Amino acid sequence: MDYQAILNVIEKELEHFDPGGKVPDYIPELAKIPADKFGMHLYCLDGKNFSFGDHDERFSIQSISKVFTLALAKKHGGKKIWKRVDVEPSGDPFNSLLQLEKENGIPRNPFINAGSLVIADILISELENPKEYLLDFVREISDDPTIEYDEKVAASEYQHGYRNIALVNYMKSLGNIENDADDILDFYFHQCSIAMSCCQLAKAFVIFANEGKTLITNKKVIGANSAKRINAIMQTCGFYDEAGEFSFRVGLPGKSGVGGGIVAVHPGQYSVAVWSPLLNEKGNSEKGMKALEELTSLTGLSIF
Ligand code: GLN
Description:
The protein is an alpha+beta fold and about 300 residues long. The chain has a single domain (about 5-300), classed as Beta-lactamase. Helix content is about 45%, strand content about 10%. It has 14 helices and seven strands. A hairpin with a 4-residue loop joins strand 1 and strand 2. Helix 5 (about 115-125) packs across helix 9 and helix 7 crosses helix 9 (about 180-195). The protein is globular. The chain binds glutamine (GLN). Glutamine binds near residues 94, 113, 164 and 258. It comes from Mesonia mobilis.
């Protein structure tokens, strides 16, 4: 497969594509990002990689981080995490409070905000220094020690994080939060603030395409069974109330973030990251989704 030729076609086809939408103004630091950024990077499991545009520029990974923290919670929290968070699609926006009351404070899945806040709580209980541990994990799987939290983005979100503050306190009132709400929010806003490029993200996500093993060094950092299960949750819950649409159009497990990034995985083949900051009303990058739809259409390959 000539992936570079296919990526070149995608870049050219979408050069003048106007996705509409807007950058997320509820996190003021993210509202400053130029809307016309566009890049893509694909890593095959043999290390060959292909790219275009702003693929090397770092951006805020936001909810894509929820996949990393879930991988760590599965490793350190074991099966008991599934007593505190479910694995069903929510059909609601990522920051919704609606289902929590009816469902006794058990979030529908680990990729909506409520679910990821519970995962953060689990990591704080299980790990000595969870912020450092998470960063080390991301650096290891990306094979890049320069990856950092963006303190400005984390602080900006904390100042305007009313919804997440409400979510964590509400779940605490329903008995599904163990630690101090401020500690959980500090961890969660930091995980979302991690700055990575499409190149770094695609490399990191190889573990989900490669049965839990890192690119080239082939080190097993999570179990093959974990990779399988996390891919399944990405497939059904990675795009909130647009998970069906992404699955229908792209046909791969994936995860988006309000920083405009999307990562998708074709198990056994490749992982790919795309970045375009304008978000549709569901909070997903419209041009990013279009680029991935083109990728699976032009290659004729998806998991289906
Ligand atoms: N940090 C963002 C929030 O909690 C993450 C949301 C997202 O990327 N969908 O609102």
